[in-house]
Amino acid sequence: MPPERNDAARASRARAGARAVEVAALPVAALVLVLATALGPARISLADAVTALGHRLSGHPDPHSWRETVIWSVRLPRALLGFVVGGGLAVAGAALQGLFRNPLADPGILGVSTGASLGAVLAIQGGLAARAVWALPAGAFAGATANALLVFVIAARRGRGRVFTGTLLLVGVALSALAISFTTFILSVSLDSYDVGRQIVYWLLGGLEGRTWDHLLLGGPAILVGVAAVLAQARELDALLLGELAAASVGVDVARVRVRVVVSVSLVVGAAVAVAGPIGFVGLVVPHVLRLVIGAGHRALVPLSFVGGGVFVVAADILGRTLLAPAEIPVGIVTAALGTPVFLALLVRRESATVTT
């Protein structure tokens, strides 16, 4: 088949895939959220869950119904937080994969996730997390911001005022390794205190246990602002897929776009890790899979990545709550267990296609 026909067929399949995903995205997201409110150690039927949500949303709650209390105060904020966090991480992954033109890029590539983890561990070790609910998210967000700023300062200094993509990548990897070593050191010191060491280990696994409306209000707005900022750069990210020189030739200020995207991703990842801990593979697998189905256009990829990432994390949390109930598996472990085989399968498929061609 001539290259022109092959490209046209690929574009047609991408458009058809995008339409199918767009049609299914919102109903699937709504179904997963409803299931997240109905499933758990306390048995609540799907009909009772829908009824309880209807009472609350209509402004006529039943104060004597334990089902409404469980759904509204425990399960719903947890599900919504998981959806927003998962969506934010997936959008961050899609943005970085477009920026670096590398399908293996993920939110941890700039060291933001590890910086947030270090800040949270310091808050736990210093006893601040035990005094106020906002102390741990604040520490994680401060660590993410500090790490992102440090990456930019070092990269700009090395580039004599200009920030290059390759330099950002190298500095991010180096600082990420440094943050991991500090986090491991603090953990090793904290093991002498059972409670502190246990809290650090459990938080580093990534999870949504005990999350409330306060956590959603702390992290949700920052994540949504960062996602909106990434979506605003969709045209520029599409141009960067052709290379920096090609993007500059069509009027894209590559340096400014790079800074805006990295700052937006840092905001999203810092806020997500601050309220849910480090959750892996979401930003790597979800946009990668969607890109194969709907194509690389970021105007469709970014919003669908948000929905897809949210569905992935909430579904993983449902599995974590139900597989070994009443015990719970942290969602970070479930996403890694689900994401690893999917990603390896995609990688093998990609290598096989490359060898065949």
Overview of this structure, please?
With 357 residues, the protein is mainly α. It contains 14 helices and no strands. The chain has one domain (17-51, 73-350): ABC transporter involved in vitamin B12 uptake, BtuC (Orthogonal Bundle), CATH 1.10.3470. The chain has helices at residues 3-38, 46-58, 66-100, 112-125, 135-158, 165-190, 194-204, 213-232, 234-240, 244-249, 254-276, 282-294, 298-322, 331-356. The longest helix has 36 residues, at 3-38. Helices cover 78% and strands 0% of the residues.
Q: Give the N-terminus to C-terminus distance in angstroms.
A: 13 Å
Number of domains: 1
* Shape by Cα distribution: globular
Which structural class is indicated by helix and strand composition? Answer: mainly alpha
For the largest beta-sheet, the strand count, sense and barrel status come to: none
CATH superfamily: ABC transporter involved in vitamin B12 uptake, BtuC
What is the CATH C level class, in words? Mainly Alpha
Using only C-alpha atoms, the radius of gyration works out to 21 Å
Work out the strand percent.
under 5%
Number of helices: 14
Nearest-integer average pLDDT: 83
Approximate helicity band: over 70%
